[in-house]
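User: Hello! I'm new to structural biology and keep hearing that structure can be predicted from sequence alone. Could you demonstrate with Ig-like domain-containing protein? Please show me the input and the output so I can see what each looks like.

Assistant: Of course. The first part below is the input, the amino acid sequence of Ig-like domain-containing protein. The second part is the output, the predicted structure written as tokens.
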Amino acid sequence: MKWIYIFLFALFAYFTNANQKGFREFPQNVSKIIGSDVLLRCSAYPSGTEHDLHSQWRSNTGALLGFRHSGVLPGHGGRYSYVRDSPDELHLKIEKLELDDDGQFECQMVRQEIGPLRATAVINIIIPPTEVILTNYKEGTVLELQEDSTLNISCYSPNAKPSPKISWFLNGKIVNNQVSNWEEYNPNKTVVAFSTLTLRPTKSEHNKMLTCESLHNETGTRLRTSVTLHVLYSSERPKIDVVGGLSNVKAGQNVTLICSAKGGNPPPNLSWYINDRPISTQYSYDFSNQ
């Protein structure tokens, strides 16, 4: 008799629709974080006859887990077990979910007066990202760049499921322009998320922090990696001031002239020339007003 029931289940596995009127409780699709536990519930309405209900589950690989009562099932590292509190139910419990558990499972039941019953449920394994990596730079690197030069910088966040969202921030403000995002899918259904930013830094972005962020909405996981921009730029055109504001001086009169230039990274070196001949000078740099 046992082999007859196995044959019936194998036959009905080819059907896309099955009689589901006898089900009292259907297994439900579920999304679970890797490493957690799940219970797929399945039960039929009690029968008023003396006919027994024969139940089993089919795994996501298509393997039949067998007709058993409650208890741990063979294989799968002892993580699969049947839970059964009455003859009309057979729940499948999976502990410490692994990526290999991702997919469709099927509850199969048969009773003489109602025939075969089938109901499916999908387990969607969620895997948070564990890192976000800059492609060509180390975390915390100081990037020395000329003003208005082009910086192409990339980062990626590997082996998550589903894909995380990658964003760029400059000193905490999101950057939307010149950003390109794409994904690559692994055979095991995990995803590697990539992003490239093209930036032309200005002097206002000197000493600003550039951050790549990987955000996994399904788990709330947020990972960041950053570099600091060190922007090199020239100073403004130098100017000369006469101390005291004198516009006319007499021969032999002492005059103090001040040459100054604002800005510049690194600070400019100032020199004096008379008729294109350099003269000895002293200068200082005022960091308070650049």
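User: So the tokens describe the shape?

Assistant: Right, they're a compact way of writing down the 3D structure. Reading them back into a model, for example: The longest strand covers residues 115-126.
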